[in-house]
Amino acid sequence: MTNQNVLVSDVKGVAMAVAAMKNQSLFSSSVANSMIESGGGGGCNFTIPRSIKLLKVETAEVGGGAARVNAWVDSLRASSPPRVKSTTTAPSPLNQTEDEESSWNLHHPSAMSMFEQITNASKGKQIVMFLDYDGTLSPIVEDPDRAFMSDEMRKAVRAVARYFPTAIVSGRCRDKVYSFVKLAELYYAGSHGMDIKGPSKSNKNKNANQAVLFQPASEFLPMIDEVCKILMEKTKSISGARVENNKFCLSVHFRCVEEKSWAALAEQVRLVLNEYPKLKLTQGRKVLEIRPTIKWDKGKALEFLLESLGYANSSEVLPVYIGDDRTDEDAFKVLRDRGQGFGILVSKVPKETNASYSLQEPAEVKDFLRRLVKWKRLSTPQ
Ligand SMILES: O=P(O)(O)OC[C@H]1O[C@H](O[C@H]2O[C@H](CO)[C@@H](O)[C@H](O)[C@H]2O)[C@H](O)[C@@H](O)[C@@H]1O
C-alpha cells in the first residue's frame, strides 16, 4: 500500500482532525491546559495540543492486486518467525548469518544486561512505563480470546505501577485488554492508541490527569462496524480465518489459516479495502490490521499520555516502552526522535527496529519489571 502523506496545512487533514477531536466527550485536562493551537474548525470550541500533530492524512491507495497481496503474504510469513539457530555456512530462514545476529545483539543488547545504564539514566527523572500486551505481557497463542496473562505477570505489572505511572498500549479493543490485565490503576490505550482512558483507581501521581479519555477516531466507528460485518461474511468460507472487532480498528487473523489460503484471505481484505479509501492497512504478527487513515498510532498515544501526565517537553521524565510488534515501532521511533527514554523490543530473533534494547520473551519482560521494582524499593528511602 502506498501512503500519501498530505501536508500539515492541508484543509482535508485539518477538517478530519477537527472532526475526530469534536467527538471527544472528555478531554485530558492537563493537555487541555496546555492547548494553544486553534482546531481550525471554524467556530469549534476545542483546540489541538501543540505537541500532537494529528494533521497528516494518509490516503490508502489500494490497487495493484496480486503484487500487493503477495507482498502482504510474504510479510506475514516473516512476522512470527520460528527461532532457528543460524550458522555462518548456512543462513537462517531470515537470511541472517551469525555475524549479522551478533551485530544485532551488539546494537540492541538485552535490557537485562543494560539494566544499570537504564537506572542510571533515570536519576532525577520519573520513569513512565508503557507496555504492549500481546507478545509482551502474554505469550502469543492461537486463539486471541485466550491470550491470558499469568498471575505472576499481573503481580509484576501491579508492583511497577505502584512506583511508576504505567500504561498498556495495545492494538486490542480497550475493554478486551482491560479484561485480561484487570488492573484499575493503569492507563489503557486500546485500538492502537485510538482509545485512551486514565485509571479508574487513583494512583500516587499528583500531576496526572486521571480522568483522561481520548478517542480521536470516533467518527469511524460505524465504518469499522460495517467493514467488520462485510469481512466476516466474505472470509467465512476460509477455514481458520478470523475477524476481530477492536472497536476503532479490525484484525484479520491468519495464524490458524493454512498457508496455501493466505493469498485468498489477503485478497478478500484488499477487495474490501478498495471500497473504503478512508481505511488503511497495517500488519502485526500473522495479522492484518485495518484502521482509519488518521495519523494516530501508538507513538502519538505515547506522546499524548506523557502530556496528560504533565511531562510534555519535560526533561524530568524517562519513558520506557516495551513491545514486540511492528505497530510498537511507532512508539520506539518517537522515543528515538525525542532522544528520550528507551524502547525495548521483545524478540528472540533479530528484527529491524527503532528500539534501543531487547528482551527475548514475556517471561524475560516479567523478570525485567520485577528487577525494576526491586531496584526502586532499595533506592527509595523508607
Ligand atoms: O498491540 P498488541 O497488544 O500486541 O495487539 C496486537 C494484536 O494482538 C492480538 O493478536 C496477536 O496475538 C494473538 C494471541 O496471542 C495471536 O493469536 C495473533 O496471531 C497475534 O497477531 C490481537 O488478537 C489483535 O487484535 C491485536 O491487533
TrEMBL record:
Residues 79-101 are annotated as: Disordered. PANTHER family: TREHALOSE 6-PHOSPHATE PHOSPHATASE, TREHALOSE-PHOSPHATE PHOSPHATASE C-RELATED. It comes from the Eukaryota. Removes the phosphate from trehalose 6-phosphate to produce free trehalose. Trehalose accumulation in plant may improve abiotic stress tolerance. Residues 85-96 have a biased composition (Polar residues). GO terms for molecular function: trehalose-phosphatase activity. Pfam families: Trehalose_PPase. This is Trehalose 6-phosphate phosphatase. Belongs to the trehalose phosphatase family. Keywords: Hydrolase, Stress response. Pathway: Glycan biosynthesis; trehalose biosynthesis. It is an enzyme of class 3 (hydrolase). It catalyses: alpha,alpha-trehalose 6-phosphate + H2O = alpha,alpha-trehalose + phosphate. Its cofactor is a divalent metal cation. GO terms for biological process: trehalose biosynthetic process. InterPro entries: HAD-like_sf, HAD-SF_hydro_IIB, HAD_sf, OTSB-like, Trehalose_PPase. Its EC number is 3.1.3.12.
